[in-house]
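[recover] target loaded
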């Protein structure tokens, strides 16, 4: 009888914890997605809700696979949603960028913010803050 491959206990717990955090954060992620894309108009409400759901799923997967802090749950951040809503509002107000390209710019800002956080963590930014 062949043995089944098993995941290490910590990895199984991390994945289940990430899924749980994702499900708990899903309603607020949908709301924050709608807040961020509200300057685009009501016709983007459905796409904004889907963006929030995708963000919650991605956050749950990434945090569970690459996270390493015990007893810390990853969730969407209301201040970040407010800042991104202002960013989207400014892009709409300026009118220099087509409305269809704005989600790309929002994703780019989020990726660069994550990169900055990663680099700060990698090079000891927490020691500077302490």
């Amino acid at each position: 009888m062949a043995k089944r491959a098993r995941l290490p206990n910590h990895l199984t717990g991390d994945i289940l914890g990430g899924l749980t955090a994702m499900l708990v954060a899903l309603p607020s992620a949908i709301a924050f997605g709608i807040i961020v894309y509200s300057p685009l108009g009501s016709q983007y409400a459905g796409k904004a809700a889907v963006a929030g759901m995708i963000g919650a799923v991605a956050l749950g997967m990434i945090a569970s696979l690459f996270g390493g802090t015990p007893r810390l749950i990853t969730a969407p951040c209301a201040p970040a949603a407010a800042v991104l809503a202002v960013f989207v509002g400014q892009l709409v107000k300026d009118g220099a960028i087509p409305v269809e390209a704005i989600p790309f710019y929002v994703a780019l800002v989020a990726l660069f913010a994550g990169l900055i956080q990663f680099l700060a963590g990698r090079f000891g930014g927490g020691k500077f803050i302490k």
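[recover] notes: Helices lie at 9-37, 45-66, 78-94, 102-122, 125-129.
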